[in-house]
User: Fold this.
Amino acid sequence: MQDGQIVLSGSRVYVLIPSNPGQLLAGTSAGVSTEPLPAACDGQDLPLALAASTPEHLVLVCSGNDEVEPPGSVLVMLSGDGGRCWRETPATPPIAHGITSLATASGDTFVGTDDAGVWVSRNNGGSWSQDLWPSGSPIYIGFEDASHGLVLDSAGELYSTSDAGDTWTSSQIPAAS
Assistant:
């Protein structure tokens, strides 16, 4: 996805540094303290993307270990305690190419990909379905709450939902003047 990521949730801040090797830090948004969290991705797996639905509920997508899993596969890890403990989801989306975005809201997880639209789990990773995207690949997915979210895709289209991603409405982004 990228070289690093900052996720804010309430007064908590999480910093993901994939190149160091997969370091995850937690602290306050005021920067008062930053603590390293236990590695969620095992051994050769690298963290790719992090999202938070609350300060305590986190989702982390890790690259799969090609020696164990099929090439290009991912692991999806969940934490309910702010990243101190992690568990692997029962199922993982069959992502063949890069992850572009990640969002979570009330047990729903949305993984945007380079070529396959959005993979969605509505049951904490128990199963995944593919939501094909009409134009470019999703480059940002975000949710205000469990129902209201936005997707910006690489074609410059902005989509909104008010039903937790069951339907999406396209909105044109005004041209800069």
Notes: The CA atoms of residues 72 and 96 lie 5 Å apart. The domain at 5-145 is CATH 2.130.10.10 (Methylamine Dehydrogenase; Chain H). The longest strand covers residues 99-105. The two ends are 31 Å apart (CA to CA).
